[in-house]
Specification:
Structural class: mainly alpha
Number of domains: 1
Shape: globular
Distance between the termini: 50 Å
Order of helices and strands: HHEEHHHHH
Helix content: 55-70%
Strand order of the largest sheet: 1-2
Strand content: under 5%
Length: about 150
């Protein structure tokens, strides 16, 4: 299992490489949460252990604050599968600003069922991951359907 520090380091360095700028702390918290949720959706398991709290702009991990403050983003050891999950999240959200991501995250069930600074429950995050997975399948079906012509003759 990966560690929070490994995931944060990979996100930090990958974001800097893709965007040619340093990631801000808010976006790092958001992307860490999205990786956590994506791991549940794609692999039916968590990638790393941590506790998320309901922050003002989305999920927050208290231990991540110190990691970010110290800029402790050393080389990390992740499996290829873990790297692929993080890369997909970076590809999807790297160019989206923090306030847009915040709007999205703050409309999810885990956020809506919590009060400020409350711990987000794992079961609520799992529910969000399942909704994410279901919605992703629906979007893929819609995309596939739009690509077909109803006038194709065989």
């Amino acid at each position: 299992m990966a560690t929070l520090a490994d995931v944060a380091s990979y996100i930090y360095n990958g974001y800097e490489e893709r965007c040619q700028e340093e990631i801000d702390e808010t976006k790092l918290h958001q992307l860490v949460y999205l990786v956590y949720r994506r791991s549940i959706a794609d692999c039916s398991r968590i990638m790393f252990c941590c506790e998320f709290s309901a922050g003002r702009y989305g999920p927050v991990v208290n231990e991540l604050r110190q990691i970010y403050k110290d800029r402790n983003f050393s080389v990390c050891s992740l499996t290829k599968r873990e790297q692929n999950i993080i890369d997909r999240v970076l590809d999807e959200f790297c160019d989206i600003d923090s306030s847009t991501i915040s709007d999205m995250l703050c409309s999810e069930g885990s956020w809506l069922s919590s009060k400020p600074n409350d711990t987000l429950t794992t079961s609520d995050i799992v529910d969000d991951a399942h909704r994410f997975k279901k919605n992703r399948k629906i979007l893929k079906l819609q995309k596939d359907y739009r690509g077909r012509s109803c006038c194709n003759s065989q």
